[in-house]
Design a protein that fits this description.
Layout (H helix, E strand, L loop, with lengths): L1 H4 L9 H13 L17 E9 L6 E9 L4 E11 L8 H10 L4 E2 L3 H11 L4 E3 L2 H4 L1 H11 L7 E3 H12 L9 H7 L10 H22 L1
Parallel strand pairs: 1-5, 3-4, 5-6
Antiparallel strand pairs: 1-2, 2-3
Helix pairs in contact: 7-9
Organism: Vreelandella glaciei
Protein name: DNA polymerase III subunit epsilon
Length: about 220
């Protein structure tokens, strides 16, 4: 777990979140999902990007998950999906959402598709930009269909960026946008208009900040 040792304090871990995860773990203890709540002992993480558009019935959610290690981002091992009820993609605002997110065909937000997502992520830690805000709609959908939210350890790359910038340059105010943070650390924006590009850029930013932390140690 060398990748995680230097930022354990940045895990999303409010008391409310921790209590929710423990409740979910107990409820799923005898289910096929029990392994998702076990500690991860490997070296991989998953960068997750998620964008949702509210609708009168249920949100349309586009997401991308990319596997990364200490050495590389494996874009060939990516999970990209848009979840929406049949017919939602015909609405003009949702067509725009789908076009901007570039997340393939719209799939039903059913148990099978959500199973595929949580099995892809597994129990690996998740990294991403503003995770708490971005995955709220996804967690609500997971709770509705699978009876639990994502239980994974999470690292918010925005918080990691802000902490490192304050440590190295306390006189500089931390940029607030993802694009500004990428520019700050000279990380390329990998097709930022799509969720796969955002997930990939989040992974690269995370790896860049990890190298900086290792050099300063």
């Amino acid at each position: 777990m060398r990748l995680l040792d230097r930022h354990v304090a940045l895990f999303s871990g409010s008391l409310r979140t921790l209590l929710r995860r423990e409740s979910d773990r107990r409820r799923c203890a005898d289910s096929p999902y029990a392994w998702l709540f076990q500690p991860y002992m490997g070296e991989e993480l998953v960068a997750l990007a998620c964008t949702s558009t509210p609708t009168p019935t249920s949100p349309v959610i586009s997401l991308a998950a990319v596997v990364l290690s200490q050495q590389q981002v494996r874009t060939s091992r990516a999970f990209v999906l848009t979840l929406g009820a049949p017919g939602q993609a015909d609405h003009a605002s949702l067509r725009r959402h789908h076009l901007l997110c570039q997340a393939g065909c719209v799939a039903a937000p059913n148990r099978d598709n959500l199973n595929a997502l949580v099995e892809f992520i597994g129990n690996r830690p998740i990294v991403g930009w503003q995770l708490d805000q971005r995955i709220g709609a996804l967690n609500a959908l997971l709770r509705k269909r699978l009876n639990f939210a994502l239980p994974n350890a999470q690292v918010d790359v925005e918080k990691l960026h802000q902490r490192q910038l304050r440590r190295l340059h306390p006189e500089i105010e931390a940029p607030s946008s993802f694009a500004q943070a990428l520019a700050c650390w000279q990380v390329p924006a990998m097709g930022m208009q799509g969720v796969l590009g955002e997930a990939t850029s989040s992974a690269l930013l995370y790896m860049r900040l990890q190298r900086i932390m290792a050099e300063a140690a």
